[in-house]
Structure prediction request, 221 residues.
Amino acid sequence: ETGVTQSPTHLIKTRGQQVTLRCSSQSGHNTVSWYQQALGQGPQFIFQYYREEENGRGNFPPRFSGLQFPNYSSELNVNALELDDSALYLCASSLIGGSGYTFGSGTRLTVV
Amino acid sequence: KNEVEQSPQNLTAQEGEFITINCSYSVGISALHWLQQHPGGGIVSLFMLSSGKKKHGRLIATINIQEKHSSLHITASHPRDSAVYICAVAETSGSRLTFGEGTQLTVNP
Prediction:
């Protein structure tokens, strides 16, 4: 049974640039959710992907977008990076309708 | 007011002490999760609860659905238990998780 793998683990970008973060799904899971965790705070829901479509979205602007692939892996894209986008980005896979989640180790993004 | 509230925010204990972290929520849930996050950032799932009580080693988690409250207990705490403990709920309206702010636990030898 494979877990959830996120890449890269750390990333430094300049304000205004674009970034793509990647997440594999645990074997047997068909849904990937993305969360943003600012320093000292709990994770905030960005969006969820199921069947290659967005299946719910939190309070994040359209410059946060995503994709899900046929193998259930997912990408998070952020355009026009802002300093406040600096955070730990977590993904979690699950089975749609289920309540169990497997988390990745996160990607720490720093925007300078 | 956050939908998921944890207390305390910070907790320092001496090795061997009994520890309790509390979580209250205000939405309908299908399950409640207790998670552990170490400084590197990765999150480990400790428990998933929809009723009653679960035990794993020195960790015990309880939930009271009527009162919308859950507790995580650590018996005979150890410095390696030092981490952030996060409560998260899976809402009945969807499958996303809503997280509490976390409790930073430090256990001193």
